[in-house]
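BUG: 3D viewer hangs when loading the predicted structure for this chain

Environment: internal workstation, default settings.
Expected: structure renders.
Actual: progress bar stalls at 90%.

Input used:
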Amino acid sequence: MGQIWPKYYNKTRFCTKVIHSSLYYSQVISFEDDMTYKKPWLSVEDQLKLLRQRGLQIDDHAVAKACLERIGYYRLSGYMYAFRQRSGECCPLPKRQDPRKTDRIAVDNFKQGSRLQDCVDLYVFDKKLRAIVLDALERVEVAVRVDIAHLLGERDTFAYLSVSEFHTSFCKLRKKNTKTEHAIWLEKQDVLIDRSKEEFITHNKKIGLPLAIWIACEVWDFGTMVTIFGHMKPKDQDQISRRYGVTNGRIFASWLETFNYLRNICAHHSRLWNRNIEKLPQLPAANDTPWVASFVDKNQNTSTRCFLELMMLAHVLKKINPNSSWPTRLRDHLHSFPTLTKVGLNVAGMGAPADWAKMLEQ
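Structure tokens produced before the viewer hung:
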């Protein structure tokens, strides 16, 4: 069912039309109505009662209570969402004009056979997945920092200060801005240096500033590293990216931006397994990188969920260390995905193609 917009649609009103089996109803909401949050505080016991009322099976009351007390109802609800029933087709709201989002909405009741323990198992699976991803991201961050510092440092000990070392856009003053992006980046690096309690930073500051790039790079966070790589000259980007099996440095720069987005998700303990990745990377040609073919011109679920980023990490780690066990550890963890076929959940929800295990083994 396509879009059905009411004739009276305007800036202050919108209409949703939902088909629930044979039931058809419309709900009109005015932005001028009182939108104050009205859901009441609930005790853990009341939270469990509400979940039962909505059809979620609770096998052990004491264990369930402990889980809600330890994890929190609201945090766990992000994992419960996948277990909720879906409506019939509905007319998308303006905010839902996104091809990755379905025209069906989640209702309060849970799918038949849903258990609270299943939700907790999925939460634990995702928690372990984030830890595995952070391990990979650390290796990528350290390796790329070294490559940037080594390449630029060969030409100039304090290369990060030199506008001639970067693309002109990095050092160009844009309209309405009082500082260049390069100046803003340098200020951020200064903050990181001042904040650092590392002995080697304290020692070298006593010797004198500025710090050599191979010293300064040790305080860069992922975002700082991504910014400087993204503004390096194309030939320098290409020289570094080739070390990671990506011939085009601009494509690799987009990978690093996506890795930074992934790092923020993991570092803040956010849900990862079925998240729609907002920072989508550019992909090299399938002729150069065969596994990419599984994500080109495929359905949105495959190209916007995290398995693509996991394959990118595996690709890069194999270049950093050909004997890396990380792809195998990731494969083994994905094999441990909770048995949730009864509610229609599996690794496909992560965007994993049918031959995902074979792809990780290549």
